[in-house]
Amino acid sequence: MWFADIILPLAVRGRFTYRIPDDFLEKIKPGVRVTVQFGGKNFYSGIVCNIHDKTPAVKNVKTIIDVLDAIPIINESQLKLWLWISEYYLCSEGEVMKAALPSETSLNSYKPRTETFIRLSEKYNDSDLNLILDRLVRAPKQQEVLSAYIRLTGYTEGAEIKPIRKSLLLKEAGSLQNIIEALTGKGILSSASLEVTRLTDSDSYNEPVRKLSEAQSLAYESVTNQLKEKDIVLLHGVTSSGKTEIYIHLIEEQLKIGKQVLYMLPEIALTTQIILRLKKHFGGVTGVYHSRFSDPEKVEIWKRVSNDDPLNGYRLILGVRSSLFLPFSNLGLIIVDEEHDGSYKQHDPAPRYHARDSAIMLAALHKAKTILGSASPSIESYNNAVNGKYGLTVLKERYGFIKLPAIIIANTREAYRKKLMVSHFTPELLQAMDEALGKDEQIILFQNRRGFSPYIECPECGWIPVCIQCAVNLTYHKGISKLVCHYCGYTTTMPSKCGNCHSTGMVTRGFGTEKIEDEIKIVFPAARVARMDQDTTKNKNSFNKIIRTFEERRIDILIGTQMISKGLDFENLTVVGVLNADNLLNYPDFRAHERSYQLMEQVSGRAGRRQKQGKVVIQTSDPANRIIRQVLRHDYESMFRIQAEERMTFNYPPFCRMVKISIKHKDRAQLNYYSDILGRDLKEIFGKRVLGPQSPVISQVQLWYIKTILIKIEREKPPAKAKQLIIEAIERLEKIKRASSLKIAIDVDPY
Ligand code: ADP
Ligand code: ZN
Ligand code: ZN
After folding, report:
1. 380 CA from centroid of ligand 1 (Å)
2. Chain segment 646-684, per-residue pLDDT in tens
3. Domain architecture of the chain: domains with CATH
4. CB within 8 A of 529, min separation 6: which ones?
5. CA 180 to CA 190: how far, in whole Å?
6. Of the residues 216, 239, 240, which should be mutated to test ligand 1's pocket, given the most ligand atoms within 8 Å of the CB?
C-alpha cells in the first residue's frame, strides 16, 4: 500500500498521511494538489510532499479523494523553503502554503485570457500584398480595411506579416464588423483566438546597459570577486552612488548564462520606477510581483516564472517579500535592496518570516548568490560583514561626484520659544523651501504619521477619544471628518462635544501628513501640493500616478510617510524636510535609534541626486541627540559601532536570538493567569533570559488584551533545541487552558 504525506492549509504543525488509491498512483507526485477530508466533514486541497509505503501508526488512515493537478505546481526547492520557514519561524507548513500560493479558486478556475486576432490567411504568406489590394478595387471598403490591417501590423517588405487584435482593427481603422467578415469570407483574412496576457506589459526595449563610472566599476569587480569565495555580499553604497546600476550589470551577467534573478524591494511604491529601469535593458523577460495583483494575474505571473521558454518565461522578477514563493527553477542571484528595511519582516499572520533572511536560504537551495544592498545596512548584516561571514563592498561617492546633501538641524524648541515657528515649520525649513520654489525645484516633506492629528483632546478636562476595541487614541482624519483607529480600522464621527464634561471646542493635537498638507497650502498658496500615504494610495495605480506626476514636475511639494523615504529617484528634487525627528527617536524599541538613523539617511538621500548638492532640514527639539549628530555627518560607521556596543552590553540581537510570544485573551484576568503560568514555565527552562510577561505599548487590539514574553537565546548554540523547548512549554499551556479561548502567537526574530 502507498501513502502520501500532505501539507494542509492549517495552523496545525506537521504533515498528514493519506492512503493513495491504486488508480491515483500514476498521477500522484510531489508538488501536485489533492483533495482530502480532514476532521469531520471538512474538505481541503493539500500539497503532496512525498510518497512512501510505511503504514502510519494511527488507525483509520483516510484516502485521497481527488487529484487536482496533472503536473506539479510546486517544485522541490519550494517545498524545501516552506519546510525551512516553518521550522525556523515555528509555524506550520500549511501557514507557509497559505502565504505562498495564489488563492485556491484562481488556481482551479484559472483560464488563460484569449482574444480574437485577425491575420492574413496563410496561403497569401508569400504573395505580393499590392496584388491582393488591387484585386479589391471594386470593394473600396474592403480594400481600406485590408490596408489598415497591413499598416497596423507595422509590416515592412520581406518580413512576415503579423496577426493583430481584432478590437484594434475595429477601433483604429473605424472598420466595421461586416467588412472584416467579408474579407474572411473571401479567405483573404482569417481570425483566430489567441492567448493574451492579463498583465499590462509596458513598452520594453533592449537598450545596452550603461557604462559604469570608475568607482562603480571598482565596486562591481569587488562584489564579483567576493562572490567567488562567499555566498553573500553586502554592498554598502551611499544614497545615489549608483547601486541600482551595479545590480543591472550583475543581472545582465546572470541572464547571459541562462539564470533567473530575483530583485527584492521592501515596498510596492518602489517597484514603479525600478521596473522601468529594468525593462529598458531586459525587456519582456522582466516581471513584477506584489500583493496588488489580482489572483488571476498572480497565477499568470506564477506560470511565467515556471516557464522555461526563454521568450515567454520570466527570467528577472522584481518583487516584494512574497515574491520569494514564486516557482523559480534556476535562480542564479538574489538582490535584496534596502536590506535594512523593516517591511521585509511579516508581522501578522504567520508565517512571521523575514524575507531577507529567507532569501538567503532560498539562494542556498538554488546554489545561488545573494547581494544585500543598502546605504545604511542593518546592524545584523553589517555585523556579519565585519565578522567576515559576508563579503563587504563599500561605495562612498555619489554618481557624478555630486556631494551628499547638506544637513541643517533646525531646533524646534528654540524656534517655539522665540515665536519663530510658522505653523509646524521652522524658519530654516521655510527658507530652504522658499529658495527651492523660487528656482522651480521640488521638495519632499516627511512625517511618519498619516491623518490630520494623532489625537484630539478636550481643553477643559483633558478627555481623549479612544478606540472602543483597542487601547489607542483615535486619529482625526479631516478629509472624511472622522476619527479612525489605525490598529483595527474602527471609524466614528468627530464629536462636537467632550464625551466627559460636554464642553464644546475639542482641539486637535500633534500633526500628521494631512495637516501638513493643509498648512503648507496656506503658507505657499501658489505651490502645487500632493500627499502620498496609505490614505491616498488605496487604488491599484495610485503609486504610479503620484510618482509620475512628481516626475513630470506637476507637483512642487510632496508630503508623505515612510513611503516616500526610500529608493525613489527624482531629478529635480533638491530639498527634503523631516518635520519631526523626535517621535522617531523616542519610540520604545531597542532598534529605534538604528531605525531613526536609517530613515533620516534614506529620506535625505532623495535630495540632490543629479546636477547639484541637495539640502535637508531636520526639525527636532533635541539637536544634540547622538543619532542626529551622526546623520549630520553621514557617519554610518560610528552609528554602527555605538549601537553594536550597546546591544552587546545589554544582550540584544545580533548578539543573541530573540523569540517573542504574544498571548491574547478577551478577559484580562484570564490573560494574566495563563500568561503567568507560561512565564513561570519558561523561566524554569531559560531562567533570567525570559523577560515578561509584560503589557506591550498597545495592550489591547480588537477587544483582545495582549501580554508578551521575550526569550533571549544564546547566539552560539544552534537554536533548534531552544525552539523545541519553547514549543513544548506552549503545548503544556494549551493542555491546561482547555476551553479558554486564548490565542498564542510566536514571533522568531521579532522586528
Ligand atoms: P542608488 O541605487 O545607489 O541610490 P542609482 O543607481 O539610482 O543609485 O543612481 C543614482 C542616479 O545616478 C540615477 O539617476 C542613475 O540613473 C544615475 N546613474 C548611476 N550610475 C550611472 C551610470 N553608470 N551612468 C549613467 N547614470 C548613472
Ligand atoms: Zn481599534
Ligand atoms: Zn471635557
Report:
1. 27
2. 999 999 999 999 999 999 999 999 999 999 999 999 999
3. 3-109 (3.40.1440.60), 113-196 (no CATH), 217-396 (3.40.50.300), 406-449+517-645 (3.40.50.300), 453-510 (no CATH), 656-748 (3.30.70.600)
4. 517, 520, 521, 555, 556, 557, 558, 559
5. 9
6. 240
